[in-house]
Amino acid sequence: MKIGQIIKEERTHRELTQEDMANEFFVTRQLISKWENDKSYPDLEQVVKISEYFDLPLDYLLKEDKKMVNELNFDSKKKKWMKYLIYIFTIIFVYLLITLFIISFFDLSELNKNDIQVTKVEKYHLPQQDIINKSTGQKVTLAEDFEYVIYFKTQKPFIDLPTITSTNTINEDRNNILINGAIVHKKIFGKKDKESTFVIRSQRENLNIDKEYLNKNKSIYLDNINKHKKNINFNNISTYSDLLLTKDELDKLPITEGKMPY
After folding, report:
1. What local confidence, expressed as pLDDT, does residue 117 receive?
2. H or E segment and range at residue 183
3. How far apart are the C-alpha atoms of 37 and 18, rounded to whole Å?
4. For residue 79, what are the contacts with CB-CB under 8 A and spacing of at least 6?
5. Summary mean pLDDT of the chain
6. Spatial CA neighbour of 75 closest among 32, 46, 49
7. pLDDT for 181-223, tens place per residue?
8. C-alpha pair distances (Å), 76 with each of 35, 36, 43, 67, 103
9. 3-state secondary structure of 128
10. Cα dihedral angle (234, 236, 241, 247), rounded to 10 degrees?
């Protein structure tokens, strides 16, 4: 006798409707009907519950219904393979997360001029000032100079920007200001529009360098690592960097009151 016929006989013997049995097994009435008409089969867990509910041995439910047994065997194998697949996909997922973490925190990228849009430039005036050299005790006159804060934004993907991305550095070309390589951390997830600053500080308090390294009357260049792959002349800043702001543009800027915020 097939399992569907057994279910139907046991149900009717106990004067249960298909709806009553469906409520007991937490399934739909239509599914009970399919079981009884051999259009589908209960899974192994449901077969065990049917056995307990009607107080019937398992072998009685299964021994004469070979198709049902084959169905359960297939279902068991399918569940086993599903467990393997879930295990494999879990390992792959964890590996990808670890990889993304490493990329986010340890891999670096560089911003070039084409990656950014300057949104504002603040210009701070440093007037001529007399100070005492702490090493010698002598009076020293600090030359007039300027400092700048360049605000910018970028839509370059997979990066994370700090408050200050980079500052100026001493370079061989004394006629221009060089912003050091704008190295930033990669980040997989983040805002589309990212904002930061370049800070141009005065070197006038460094008494060991030449006054030619002051910021006054100079253009500002941004280092470009891509140009480093070519033949460069460190005495000519344009061979390894990109012009960001010209001397004329800087001269026309109004003086920002107060001290530089960074």
Report:
1. 94
2. strand 182-186
3. 12
4. none
5. 83
6. 46
7. 777 765 655 566 689 999 999 988 887 777 788 999 999 999 9
8. 19, 22, 9, 14, 41
9. coil
10. 140
pLDDT at position 246 = 96
The C-alpha atoms of residue 58 and residue 50 are separated, in whole angstroms, by: 9
The whole-number pLDDT of residue 98 equals 75
Q: What angle do CA 56, 48, 63 make, to 5 degrees?
A: 60
Residue 236: pLDDT over 90? no
Nearest to 105 by CA among 188, 196, 194, 191: 188
pLDDT digits (tens, 9 = 90+) for 54-89: 888 877 777 655 566 566 555 555 566 677 778 888
Nearest partner of 169 among 190, 198, 142, judged by Cα = 198
Structure tokens at 95: 């590996």
**What value, to the nearest 5°, has the Cα angle with vertex 170 and ends 167 and 172?**
135
Amino acid at site 19: E
